[in-house]
Amino acid sequence: MNINWNPPKNWQTIKTIDMHTGGEPLRIFVDGLPEIKGKTILEKRRYFRDNLDYIRTSIMLDTRGHADMYGAVITNPTTPDADFGTFFLHNEGYSTMCGHAIIALTKFAVETGMIKKEGNRPEFIINAPPGKIRSKAFLKNGLVEKTSFINIPSFVSYINETVNVKGLGNIKFDISYGGAFYAFVDADDLGLNLNESDYYRLIDYGKRIKKAIMNNFEITHPFEKDLSFLYGTIFTAKAKNPDN
Predict the structure, then answer these.
(1) What's the CA gap between 102 and 106, in Å, rounded?
(2) pLDDT digits over 49-88, tens only?
(3) pLDDT band at 239 (very low <50, low <70, confident <90, very high)
(4) Quick check: do 15-150 and 155-236 share a fold?
(5) Is 47 helix (H, G, I), strand (E, B) or coil?
(6) Which homologous superfamily does the CATH classification assign to the domain defined by 155-236?
(7) What is the CATH number of domain 15-150?
(8) For residue 33, what is the DSSP state?
(9) In contact, 183 and 213? CB cutoff 8 Å
(10) Is the pLDDT of residue 1 over 80?
(11) What is the pLDDT of residues 25-38, one digit of tens each?
């Protein structure tokens, strides 16, 4: 079958590159986006959310995306010392910080030639929603073998607090911030295993705990209202392997 078809010229065309970090997906927007107004990354993210959210839903959701799709929009730097800016989006909305995205973006910046740097350990300053992220690429034979980054300062908001969760009772938790607010809960307190055997319960309990905390506790960033929300629940447990 010989099909000669091209999309109409008036259709919006958006180009992306898909990457992953240890299996975590990252879809990077590289061309075709309208102007994203704003002087800071948070202003740009807010403008995108309020005016261009149809792009997020079109690219992140089925059929182009999926339930676990994650994306990064690259912008011009918003401070004189930065190499580029970025903000993050996913199937539910927008996040504030993403380590796996920073790792992938660093590799992307080097191997696509987006940012020209000399040497085998180029460093980047990235304007991200929570602040400046400093990343480094380690090259071997011209390709990025591994990356590292220095995050923004972290802090603890709540320690040893308790919240009543429907169907689970009183749950102890801590909340800390490292670019996004997370609640930390001991999996052993709930009889959870941190493996695929409890996959569905981990998701269910995590959502319920997050909702209960959001309904009963104030999540406040010291100076950015746009960062003042609980992003998710992280379950912790003692290592099963003595080497870990």
Answers:
(1) 6
(2) 999 999 999 999 999 999 999 999 999 999 999 999 999 9
(3) confident
(4) yes
(5) helix
(6) Diaminopimelate Epimerase; Chain A, domain 1 (3.10.310.10)
(7) 3.10.310.10
(8) P
(9) yes
(10) no
(11) 999 999 999 999 99
* Of 229, 188, 184, residue with least CA distance to 209: 184
For 181, how many CA atoms within 13 A lie in the half-sphere containing its CB?
22
CA distance 143 to 78: 28
Give the active site residue among 41, 55, 69, 98: 98
Q: What are the residue boundaries of the structural domains of the chain, listed by start?
A: 15-150, 155-236
pTM summary value = 0.92
Q: Which stretches of the chain are assigned E, i.e. beta strand?
A: 15-21, 24-31, 70-75, 84-90, 94-95, 123-128, 131-140, 143-150, 155-165, 169-177, 181-186, 230-236
Specify whether 98 is catalytic.
yes
